[in-house]
Amino acid sequence: MNGMPVSRDVRVQKADGNASCTSVPGAQGAKGAGPSGLSGLVTVMGFDSKDVLFSSDQVGTVQWRDSKGEIVALLVRLKPDIWGFSRRGEEDWEQVLERYGHPDIS
Questions:
Q1: pLDDT, tens digit, for every residue of 24-37?
Q2: CA contacts within 13 A on the Cβ side of 19
């Protein structure tokens, strides 16, 4: 493993009680459920913190594609606060891709 960690804690710290969800111009579907208004919210950012491309609490799967347009990684919401990550080359990739991948064909 070349000294790489086998696992790590990737929990997100809860926002303080004063945080609130506000509508962001150009953001789609931001409902802001939950007591803080941020529960379950997934936000896609551009290169700076003011560049919000998409924001929604309804996200179930995030797909990454390579230069050929093939899905190379998936981030999947398994339960409200539990996400799974899978990438091409892993032993179960074909099963994960079949279950959670989407062709994005219009």
A1: 334 444 444 455 67
A2: 14
The pTM (predicted TM-score) of the whole model is: 0.61
The per-residue DSSP string of 24-44 comes to -TT--S----STTS-TT-EEE
DSSP state of 92: T
Q: What is the DSSP code (8-state) at residue 74?
A: E
Parse the chain into domains and list their residue ranges. 13-58, 60-106
- Which stretch of DSSP H or E encloses residue 96? helix 93-100
Nearest to 40 by CA among 15, 63, 54, 58: 58
| Residue 104 or 35, more confident | 104
Quote the tokens at residue 32: 């802001």
